[in-house]
Amino acid sequence: MSNYQIASSNVLQSPLELDDDQILENVYKTHFHCVEKCDVQCLHSVASNVIHHSIAITDCLINKGSQQSDQFHEGSSFGCVQQLTAKLKRIACQMLCTGRGDKYAHHTTMLILEQLKAYSWDAKALIVQAAFALEFGKLSHIPQSQSQSQSQGEVVDQLLEVEKSLAELNGLPSLRQKSEELVILNGLVKKVMQMIGCIREWKELISKEYEIKEVPILSQTLHQIPVIVYWTIFTFVTCTAQINYFTTTHHTKDNRYELPKHFDHRLDGILKSFQENLEDCKKQIEAIEDYTKRKNIIYGGNKDIVRVLRALIISTHQYSDSRQIVYCGLNGQPVKIEDLKKKHVLLFISGLENIQDEIKLLKGIYEKLKEEPREVEGYRKEDFKILWIPIVDEWNERNKKDLEKMLEDTKIGWYVVKDFNFKTGMRLIREVFKYKDKSIIPLLSPQGQVENDDTKLLLSVWGIDGFPFKASDYTRLTQQWNWFWNEITKLNPRMKDFIEDDYYIFIFGGTSSKWIEEFETALNTLKRQIETTVPIELYRLGRDDSRVVPRFWIAIDSLLANRKHTKGGGGEGVMDFSTREMKRLLFLKQDPKGWVILSKGSNVKLLGQGEVMYRTVKEFEKWPRKLDDQEVSFDVAFKEYYERIKLKDGPPKCEHSEITYPSDILARIPCPNVDCGRSMEVTSVNYKCCHGLEQPNVAPRSNLC
Question: Where are its TM segments located (predicted)?
Answer without folding.
Answer: none
